[in-house]
Amino acid sequence: MLARAKQSRLCNGCRHDLLTVFERGFCGPPVALIHHSTRLPLRWRPSIERPRRQLRSFHGKSALFQQSPPTLDDQPQRDDGRVVNEDLDPEQLEVLQELENALGRPINEAIDADRAAAASTDIQNLIHNAQSISDDTFDLVRGTIDPLAALRANGASAEDIVREARRAYGDRLPQNALQEGEKKIYKRLYGEPVSLSYEEFLDEEEAIDVDVTTQNELLDHEGEPVEYDMSPFREKEFQVEGEDDAIDADPPQPAEGGINIESGGQSSFSPFAPAEERAKEIALMLKGRVLEDENQEGEDEEDEEFDEELDPSMRTHPFTQLGKFATNPRSVFLPQEHFVEPVQNVMSKFSNKHLKEMCEKTFGGPGLPDSPLTPRSGRSRPQVPIPLDTSRHLMGEMEANAYITAIMPPTYAAVMAVLVETRKRLGSTWLNNLLAREGGPRVLDAGAGGAGIIAWREIVQAHWNSLHSSDKQPVPPPPATKSVVLTGSDALRHRAANLLDNTTFIPRLPDYANTRDVPTLEDDRPAQQRKQFDVIIAPHTLFPLQEEYMRKNYVQKLWSMLSPEGGVLILIEKGIPRGFEAIGAARELLLERHIAVPEGRTSEYSSIHNDTENDYTPSTGMIIAPCTNHERCPMYKTSGLSKGRKDFCSFQQRYIRPNYLQRVLGAKDRNHDDVDFSYISVMKGQDLRQRQVQSWSELQDSFSAPPHPNPDRASEDYVSWTDLSPKGFEDVHPESNLTNIEALFTNAGQPPSTLPAAHTLPRLVYAPMKRRGHVIMDVCTSRGTIERWTVPRSFGHQAYRDARKSRWGDLWALGAKTQIPRNLRLGGENTKEAMKARGRKERLKQQAEELLEKMHDEKLEEMEEMKEVEREFKDGRFIDEERAKRSKPGKIKRETSNSEVESFTMDDFNMDEVNPPMISESTKKSSGRSITGQANSSAPATQNGEDDLTPEELQTLHEWSDILTGDTGVPVKGARSTRSYSKFAPKGTKKVPRKSGKSR
């Protein structure tokens, strides 16, 4: 969005003078003016004892304005002795004449009165100061504080004065601020100062404080001073005695009717009041109302966005700020020293062209749609996992380069966002306990190739700095972390070793899920000691597994490696439907087998846990984020893959791309990207739902809250806070405790025993829709439902303001006016979404399969027909007369007598196999005709070209001739016989029989 152009404004002094003219000129007594034919003398406004901040330079006209105004003697006069005012046009003269008539007295008396009132002002001092200012120099404005004068008076050294001048003025040093010796020291320390041009005036925020107000004046559009009388203003503001007689005249009536102003110009309306108050006062006097501008709301929202950039916590409810899902700053910057620079050193040994080609070849082409980036243009592509995996043992040099170039930056951003959210929900006590552990925290990176360890170390360093923010001494390094990274490839391990120090690399994970943890009857020896971790980070490890049982085994393997004393497991996948389904399956597995339902509470998994045939024993645990409920996921009601899924739970994090990723993507317009991901953060061995939150500090640091003495009472309070979440917890503030929180339970039989915690709040699962006058939010509630909440302006100023500042992934604590269930498009086999999801490619594939099946059936029918024909030939049966009519005799080629060409005759072939006889032996006998006779009778007609035919060939030829001439009783061409002559022959030769075949 383009920034709005900053509107030019008047300075503070000119604004004050202009408002004064409006007040006294339109709402007060008439202004005393001189005769219209006389040039208006300059009236200097007396100094007003009010602090001002102004530092400006004079140049050209500015210096001219400080000079003394011309007297009447210096002005040109006409022959009649009247002063000529060449600058006034006829309209101005006419206006002055009207003002003189309204004054009710001669203009000469007004001139005398004005001169008498102006005699008390000391103009000569100002003229002297203004004349000392040249056109090409600038100086401190008269009346401003000289910050260096006090230092000189106290006897400060020249260097101290120069440093103070540098601090006060910066590079732009006024000319007379320092003395000659001090200027030499200034140049030696800071170089030549920058000269100010006449256009550069400092803003009020950048100017130095002023204790004496400079004498300002009101100028017109040409820079000339405008005359106005300040005596009524002086009387009202400063109680100046001795009112001029000219002011006693009756004030003129206001131009606008209906505005009642007290006589004498005393009105309650003040131009110095805010614009809204002035508009309301005028509307009240006019008996009207103020209409809101249509664009005012949009401008207010833009101002609020600007205010939030300056201070994100400004005017935000503390509970809203506590539920924010965001890093600080919102865009994640990759650490230069520990990440970007080492990778750049590695990439400098390889060609950028080869690296780009390898990345595009591995991750699906330009834009890398198969990487964690998932660009918008790749959403229509098939949903495939990331091609490269850290547990892969066969990975070449360029593939390892492609991994650390395209996968590690977005993975780092996603891991950082999840770690920050986990740290917010658990509090600082959780991380303090890990750092205080002997040997430090134990962290396993099981899928990020080292990016998860880098993100963890950044979190620990930031937390450690916050603990030592008040120390004056250098901050000591934080306790070391026992870092373990899974890297199956040697090439990837060597590159990760350049980024991480004091790190252990392992080629594969131990399989603790299928090994015994206690002595058994078969083996009574103690179980082998297991390696356990406090934090396990496993991004992009479930989706590449093809089968569901493989994913379950992998999740159970990670769970078995987690510490039972508050270990945290973080699973992250791509923000696509298939990635969410992998996370949803892992969540369902953990709730079914490993996370127990708290005492005094029931859920959909209670029946499974109470089943005596259940082979798994659930233990204490909880989901930290993003879920605030432990029911069945409302977006994962059907296990497994769901075709046509449109709604799924995912989140987004923006990060700044490094230079090498910019070159691979070919990006030139922006250097940031948004990575979409689905995740779940689970804790083993601790359940914050069984804690008793008694104060705001424990609400911020949930891990520091003590266990609840009555678990059943804690479950009742949890249900109560869940039911009250739609109404909002706006009354909960940092001063809240168990004594003053009872106001929220006015209808309850007993007061609450704990404050509403963050895990009782709904979370925004989609970006809020901010409309005019209301905000629509799709939230996942703590009851395990997806609802659409609407927060209008009428619901409350604080709630509406925070709703407009809400973002995707935030916890919402201020309720809503309306709540309705949201329709989810979860896909399925026979749903409309699933049918659309099949797409054109699947339809074409189905059509191709149907066509192949049809061709296969036709081929089988043809083979059956050929077998039937073959059986008929073997049996000696005539096929049918219709087929005989459609059959054509083959052309028998003559033997060529050419010595150079190899020749062959028909005797070399078995003609019965080449051209099987169409008439069986039984048919020949029944015809009663001898073959020899037929051959002799037709010999004259076939003498030409038949001398070299064998008897078998002649026999076949005569048989075909009988069929064609109709001797068998079958007409060849309709009911007519075949002509024996050519109809195109001349008249005398039409009776000559035509020849069969071509003439030679």
TrEMBL record:
One Pfam family hit: Rsm22
Gene Ontology terms describing biological process: translation
Superkingdom of source: Eukaryota
Localization in the cell: Mitochondrion
Compositionally biased spans, kind Polar residues: 928-944
Biased segments, Basic residues type: 988-1000
Region (Disordered): 59-83, 248-271, 292-315, 362-386, 695-716, 880-1000
Chief place of localization: mitochondrion
Record function comment: Mitochondrial ribosome (mitoribosome) assembly factor. Binds at the interface of the head and body domains of the mitochondrial small ribosomal subunit (mt-SSU), occluding the mRNA channel and preventing compaction of the head domain towards the body. Probable inactive methyltransferase: retains the characteristic folding and ability to bind S-adenosyl-L-methionine, but it probably lost its methyltransferase activity.
The protein's name in its UniProt record: 37S ribosomal protein S22
Organism of provenance: Cladophialophora chaetospira
Gene that produces this protein: RSM22
